[in-house]
Amino acid sequence: MLALLMSVLSRLAACDSKDSNILLEAEVPGITDTEIRIGSSLALSGHAGYLGTQTLHGAKAFLESINKAGGIHGRTIRLISYDDGYDPPRCLANTQRLIVEDRVFSLFCYVGTPTTVKIIPLIEEARIPLVGVFTGANALREPFNRYIINIRASYYQETDAMVQHLVADLGLSRIAVFYQYDAYGFDGLKGAELALKKYGRAPVATGSYIRGTMDIEEGLAKIIQSGAEAVVMIGTYEPCAEFIRSARARGYNPIFYNISFVGANEIAKRLGKDAEGVILTQVVPPPEAAGYQTHLWGTVEYSNLHRLYFPEDEPNFVGLEGYINAKVLVEGLNRCGRELTRERFIDAIESIQEHSLGIANTLTFSSTDHQGLEDVYFIRIENGKFVLITDWLKIKREIQTTGTVPH
Amino acid sequence: MNTFHSPGSMVDGQAAMRKEILIQKLQGLKFRDKILFSTLAVMFLLSVGIALATRWLLVNNLTSELEIRGLAIAQSLADPSRTYILTKDNPNLVSLVFDAAQLGERKPLIAYIFIADTQQSILAHTFTTPFPNDLRQANPVGPEQNNSIKLIRVHDNPAYDIAVPIREGIYQIGTIHVGLSKKHIDHLIAKLRITFLGIISVIGILFVVIIHWLSRYISRPISQLTLVADEISRGNLDAYMDSHKEFPSVNKRAGNEVAQLTDSFNNMVTSIKLYRTRLQESEEKYRSLFHSGPDPIFVLDRNTFEILDANPSAEKTYGYTKSELLGTPFRELVPEYEEAYLRGSEDKSLDDLSLGISHRAGSRKKGNLLFYVNVHACPTLYKEREAIIVATNDITEIMEKDAQLIQASKMTALGEMSAGVAHELNQPLNAIKMGSEFLNMVISRSGSVPQEHLQQVVNEISSQVDRASEIINTLREFGRKANLIEERVNVNKPIRGVFTLLSQQLSLQNIEVKLELGDALDDILAHNNRLQQVIFNLVTNARDAIHQKRKEGQGDRLISIRSFQEGDRVLITVSDTGMGIPESLKNKIFEPFFTTKEAGQGMGLGLSITYGIVKDYGGKIDVQSQEGAGTTFKLSFPVCSSTREEKKNKNGIDLLPGNETKSKDTTMKEIGPA
């Protein structure tokens, strides 16, 4: 009796998966003879609008060039993008619309942790690939999801590397964390805490602000009081710039460290003089780093294309990330050939090994690892320019002589 | 216990018959299997019952419970969605329904959620595929309804659609539909059912194992007992006692029925063993009695009187080998026994032990030599046949001794008689003397005597010689040893014989004798001279009693003898007017060596021998006595029937020459006052 029930159940389960397989194979959404339709929901306006816009520009610059060159195996790529204003509900609604109404082949270039995390269930249910997300959130990496293709290094990796330098190289022990009170902020906080824990430490203070607001006062006060020598900041450019400006205004000058998502160019622009000495981690190299062009031929390529298609912009970190996303997408589609299905596409992405993008950071995927890049770049704003940090001792000395750190 | 049928299921004959066969089959099963099968049956029924009950309960309860949950979800969505509908904030509506659908464990349960406005256009839904159009109108909720639940199909999958209206004030502005995946519900039910069945199966298996163990636990001692019982019935009693030691633990489980059975069994075996030992001892005893007993013992078939077995003594005594004896009719050894036994068994008054007794039966050994035996028999079973165990006791020697005793006693009597006989003889002798003197005188006187006188005298002399001769004959007859064969005797003859010898003597002693002898008496089977001895003994006793009385000096001196017949018995009474027998001595008078006479006057054997003789002829002797007034002995004998006589003649037993025997084997106890 038992065995009978078991067999019936297993047969039911088998039927289930077979049915959906047939459905997928019958008609691949977003694929026509001449066109590959992909969709994106990202912040094109609002307080994170810069990030979305630049990501999109970077990506589009490359896609346009591909389309102009004849597309991929006879198909051009059409990117449908909706603005979600860094608002998770809107992102969700947009995504549903992309899947149900626009019937895109793949999702592409999402921006932001809370927004992207919101659509994970939808991705799972629709079994649609998502390529390239402008966030290093752990939630997109663990548990492993076959349909999510991350490219950049994670926030954990960023904070871990940074904390390592702060503690080991700069000899700082009092470290505070300022974060955005949402999934993104928590993810960064957790990464910083985990990194500090390796040294037997914990943040001396934590402060937070609500997403979309500038209410940094309370957190700032808390952190100033703690006398932290460095502040790890997990936020967007507006509140973070406000935090740094306010701190400096009160004569509090610890090491400000920002995570990549902050948008390096934007925060530098907003801080102006106050940006001096701010450290950032980036997951892509500086797009126009002087003296490294031969090594970083990819950044040169990007800069040229960006300037070509979006002359109003300056090439920037965010755009470069969008550009790299597009390159991975195209590489995957290319490897698939004419027979394009979502599953084959993911298999193709997973087949990319040690692929050079010209950014001194090779791209590698596998069936168990959907994060293509691992490296983190440390950048210091010096005289309004982004400088790759190569000598931490120099910074340490500088701190000691200028005495920017209290006590 | 072991039938699946309810009593009411007997509807027709065939079914009843089938049921009977089933029951028979079940009854034929081993105890252990019965327990096992019935438990399995109960378990099976229980499992089916529980499965059905579970299905019913689960399907109903779970479905309604989940519907309530779906309803709660829908109702909880109604409030926030109102705001978004009014502000036309579709992204938040989408987010709302997705959040609601994705929340935790709801995800597999909820197939979809969608919100429609009053025009049935969809404001938000959780599908990742185009919205199925037939869903719009699938489960409308009326203005008066608070909710509506309906089973519908979405993409060929069944789902419970729960519709809840969204109202602003009293008017509806939209509807929330929550679809519960029926597949998931069914899956839950199936999972629970499998869990239930798994538990039941585990319990069932456990139960079966326990029952199996229990039934073995119960039936093992029983089958062990069976084995042991088989062993015992093969006669291996000792083997049991040995093996029994191996499970003494059985004994210690007090209170347990099986243990009680085992105990009883043990006791039974012990007592069987005991009885067997006793039986063996007894058998050995009897076997040794049978084999080494001095008397011949035979086992006879009760119907054919053939010899089935005989002991060595029988072989020795009869001179036949055992193989010669087996199968031989017993009548060839003891010709008259068969008849005696049959006669005895017809007599209802005899018990088993006495019916087979036969005294002084003639018996032949090899070579047709005759000897005398007492036969004792008792019925028995021999190899499942009705049989008689017969012991023959050679009494020839005893009989000879008895005869010698009787003879000796007779000689004593003869001695006593001699004086009387002398008198008796004197009379004829005197008469002859006188006659011869007369004749002498005649011769000397020469012829003056008439012829008639001479004739008379000669006749007288002749008759007196006859008389003397008679006396002598009688005397000789008396002294002669009796034949072993009984003869027809008229009792008057010995009476007269005795008085031939005694009348003179008695009259000399002034004792009057009165004889009243009956006419036409039937004969009895006896010996004339032994009867004479009997009467002589009685008469001399009477005389002595009268003499004894005379010493005391008083009364009549009369001995009266009567003979008469009463039915088939001939009676003789001998009465005297002597001193009588004191009451205290009445019991002892027939005992041997009992006498009241002075030492030297008698051996005290007279009455004892008298008693023996009378008994030998099947007679009775009776004493009536009044102290000081006299004694009457009353003898009674069965008359001789002619048939009996004929049979006797036909058997034709030869007499052992010169062996006049007389048995006297009656015990003292039997002798008592009549």
At a glance:
Chain A has 407 residues and is α/β, with parallel strands linked by helices. Chain A has 13 helices and 12 strands.
pLDDT averaged over residues of chain A: 88
Secondary-structure class of chain B: alpha+beta
Largest sheet, spatial ordering of strands of chain A = 7-6-8-9-10-11-12
Strand content of chain B: 15-25%
Largest sheet of chain B: 5 strands, antiparallel
Explain what you see.
The complex is a heterodimer of chains A (407) and B (674). Chain A is α/β, with parallel strands linked by helices. Chain A has 13 helices and 12 strands. In chain A, the strands form 2 sheets. Chain A has a 7-stranded mixed sheet, with helices on both faces. A 5-stranded parallel sheet of chain A has the order 2-1-3-4-5, sandwiched between helices. Chain A is globular and about 65 Å long. The relative contact order of chain A is 0.13. About 5% of the residues of chain A have low confidence. Chain B is α+β, with helices and mostly antiparallel strands and 674 residues long. Chain B is 53% helix and 19% strand. Chain B has 18 helices and 17 strands. Chain B has a 5-stranded antiparallel sheet with strand order 2-1-5-4-3. In chain B, strands 7-6-10-9-8 form a 5-stranded antiparallel sheet. In chain B, strand 1 and strand 2 form a beta hairpin. In chain B, helix 5 packs parallel to helix 8 and helix 14 crosses helix 15. The radius of gyration of chain B is 61 Å and the shape is rod-shaped. The N terminus and C terminus of chain B are likely disordered. Chains A and B meet through helix 1, helix 3 and helix 4 of A and helix 3 and helix 5 of B.
